[in-house]
Automatic annotation (TrEMBL):
UniProt superkingdom: Bacteria
Keyword DNA-binding (UniProt): yes
Residue ranges annotated for the SpoVT-AbrB domain, each copy included: 1-33
GO function terms (MF aspect): DNA binding
Keywords, comma-separated and alphabetical: DNA-binding
Protein name: SpoVT-AbrB domain-containing protein
PROSITE patterns in alphabetical order: SPOVT_ABRB
Length: 68
């Protein structure tokens, strides 16, 4: 990746990236940006659902697995 591109996305000293194909476009994002986007999406999807948590999800999955 050219130095000017790395600098533009804050990777002038290197770092991990996430690369995705969107149709014919290639998107390159930093891992931090990708995590922040995922967290924001999660906040929006779970807004108004205080009972929703990772612990509750894992407990439900565990119960489902025991029933199989």
């Amino acid at each position: 990746m050219p130095a000017e591109f790395r600098k533009a996305i804050g990777l002038e000293h290197g770092g991990d990236v996430v690369i995705e194909l969107d149709g014919r476009d290639i998107r390159i994002r930093t891992v931090d940006e990708t995590v922040a986007r995922a967290q924001e999406l999660t906040r929006r999807l779970l807004a108004g659902k205080p009972e929703a948590s990772l612990d509750a999800f894992l407990q439900e999955r565990h119960r489902e697995a025991e029933q199989e």
